[in-house]
């Protein structure tokens, strides 16, 4: 399993951003190998983090190479005040069962090594 974490600071979002964001979200969820996503915000630093989970690098690359994603990337300077992407291989997840289905990828579904 892999995760792609998109960390960014926002500028002003407009209708074009929201429309493209919704299209990309729907497209990502339709990619075979998409497992889920989570969003976190650090208000003290003014940062947002979107974490996407994938079964394979090939599934992740389907998103990265998609024309809608490329369109958003080309216009990021209109909407974002900086960003960073972190691609990681998930080696293990574990925990108790108290979080249940509130997580994008519950520990029971994640591979163990």
Task: Give me a quick take on this structure.
This protein has a single domain (2-109), classed as Alpha-Beta Plaits (2-Layer Sandwich), CATH 3.30.70.100.
Model description:
This protein has 3 helices and 4 strands; from the N terminus they run E-H-E-E-H-H-E. It is of the alpha+beta class and 113 residues long. The chain has a single domain, classed as Alpha-Beta Plaits (2-Layer Sandwich), CATH 3.30.70.100. Strands 2-3-1-4 form a 4-stranded antiparallel β-sheet. Strand 2 and strand 3 form a beta hairpin. It starts with a strand and ends in a 24-residue tail after the last strand. The mean pLDDT is 88.
- Secondary-structure-based class equals alpha+beta
The CATH topology label is Alpha-Beta Plaits
Radius of gyration (Å): 15 Å
Beta-strand share of residues = 25-35%
The residue fraction in helices comes out at 25-40%
Order of helices and strands: EHEEHHE
Specify the CATH architecture: 2-Layer Sandwich
The CATH class, by name, is Alpha Beta
Mean of residue pLDDT?
Answer: 88
* Unreliably modeled segments: none
| Principal-axes shape call | globular
Q: State the helix count.
A: 3
How far is it from the N-terminal to the C-terminal residue, by CA?
11 Å
Largest sheet: 4 strands, antiparallel
**How many domains make up the coordinates?**
1
The strands making up the biggest β-sheet line up spatially as 2-3-1-4
Number of strands: 4
């Amino acid at each position: 399993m892999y995760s792609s974490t998109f960390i960014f600071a926002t500028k002003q979002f407009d209708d074009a951003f929201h429309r493209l964001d919704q299209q990309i979200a729907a497209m990502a969820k339709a990619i075979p190998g998409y497992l889920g996503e989570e969003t976190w915000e650090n208000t003290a630093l003014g940062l947002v983090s979107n974490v996407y989970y994938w079964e394979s690098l090939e599934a992740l690359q389907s998103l990265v190479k998609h024309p809608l994603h490329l369109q958003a990337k080309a216009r990021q300077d209109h909407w974002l005040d900086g960003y960073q992407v972190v691609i990681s291989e998930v080696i293990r997840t574990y925990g108790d069962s108290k979080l249940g289905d509130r997580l994008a990828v519950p520990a029971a579904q994640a591979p163990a090594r």
